[in-house]
Specification:
This protein is of the alpha+beta class. The protein contains 8 helices and 7 strands; from the N terminus they run βαβααβααββααββα. It folds into 2 domains: about 35 residues, no CATH class; about 130 residues, no CATH class. Helices cover about 50% and strands about 15% of the residues. The protein has a 3-stranded antiparallel β-sheet. It has a two-stranded parallel ribbon with strand order 1-2. A two-stranded antiparallel ribbon has the order 6-7. Helix 6 runs parallel beside helix 8. The two termini are about 40 Å apart. The relative contact order is 0.08. The mean pLDDT is about 90.
């Protein structure tokens, strides 16, 4: 917290600043804007490029959620038919222990994107586990989610992993190619 001392006496100002490093001393003749500026918390102001990118990312995330839906941990328990008292146990086991699904943060909650689950059985799609086993561990959250919808170069043209979700071996190859790109890029540093 900033404490402001306005005085014409330099000794009073120096004494107040010596006792409390949060004290800002001003002479009565200081311009008002300088006093106001001292009371404002220091924050870096993002540039227009950063704000534009943040808006694009927010728009992509919202579109992704609208297209694929998402489940809370409790909804995963219901989908899986779990009778466990801990309604988050199934999601935790699948995401952390078995690493066959992943979550994204959305307004302070972890959500699990709907495409990861077989609509008939409620179980994780095998292709998701195949990809997660090969993708770099640093690829998490929204970056991982958007990877699924990003067209990647293949011998057959450009293919997004979501387009071939029904083919776990093909998704695994796409994930391995992505991991190779990460290793190559890390070698360029």
């Amino acid at each position: 917290m900033v404490h402001v001392v306005i005085t014409e006496d330099d000794a009073i100002a120096a004494d107040a600043q010596a006792r409390d490093p949060g004290v800002v001393a001003f002479d009565l003749d200081e311009p008002f804007d300088r006093v106001v500026e001292a009371l404002m918390p220091h924050r870096d102001v993002p540039g227009p490029g950063l704000l534009a990118q943040a808006r694009r990312n927010a728009s992509e995330r919202l579109a992704f959620l609208e297209e694929h839906g998402a489940l809370t941990a409790e909804e995963i328990a219901d989908l899986a038919g779990s009778t466990a008292r801990n309604r988050r146990q199934t999601a935790h086991r699948w995401s952390v222990q078995e690493r066959c699904i992943f979550g994204v943060e959305h307004h302070g909650r972890t959500l699990y994107l709907g495409f990861q689950f077989d609509p008939d059985t409620g179980r994780p799609q095998p292709a998701v586990a195949a990809a997660l086993a090969r993708l770099p561990a640093q690829l998490t959250g929204w970056a991982l989610a958007l990877w699924w919808d990003t067209p990647l170069p293949t011998t057959d043209g450009w293919v997004a992993p979501l387009e071939v979700l029904h083919d776990p071996s093909r998704v695994a190859r796409l994930a391995e190619d992505e991991a190779d790109r990460w290793r190559h890029d890390a070698g360029d540093l």
